[in-house]
Amino acid sequence: MPLAMTPQAMASVLVEGGACAAMPDSRGLSPLMVASANGATPIVRMLLRQGGKGRSGLDVNGTDIGGHTALWLAVLNR
Predict the structure, then answer these.
(1) To the nearest whole percent, how much of the chain has pLDDT over 70?
(2) 31 Cβ partners below 8 Å, 6+ apart?
(3) What is the pTM for the complete model shown?
(4) In the predicted model, what is the mean pLDDT of residues 33-51?
């Protein structure tokens, strides 16, 4: 039987395991931006809590290549 994890559980395992929650992809999208754009509120909260501990280098005002912030992406995809 395959191991099934919720997206929130997977994100938590990755961050707790040391994955960089601030690393953007080739389009400049950080995990926070992707979670915000997809309405994944529990993951957004978890990333913000981890970033608040200063371990991830999370930039809540960071922008993608189009100049959009996580907040803007959340509003656009509401």
Answers:
(1) 90
(2) 11, 21, 22, 23, 43, 47
(3) 0.81
(4) 90
| Best CA proximity match to 9, nearest among 52, 40, 55, 54 | 40
- DSSP 3-state assignment of 61? coil
Structure tokens at 43: 């993951």
Residue 24 one-letter amino acid:
P
Alpha-carbon distance of 58 to 38, in angstroms, equals 18
Distance (Å, whole) CA 65 – CA 54: 24
Which pLDDT does position 10 carry in this prediction?
87
**b/e code 5-43 from CB counts within 10 Å (16+ = b):** eeeeeebbeebeeeeebbebeeeebbbbbbbbbeebeeb
Q: Which residues have CB under 8 Å from 26's CB, separation 6+?
A: none
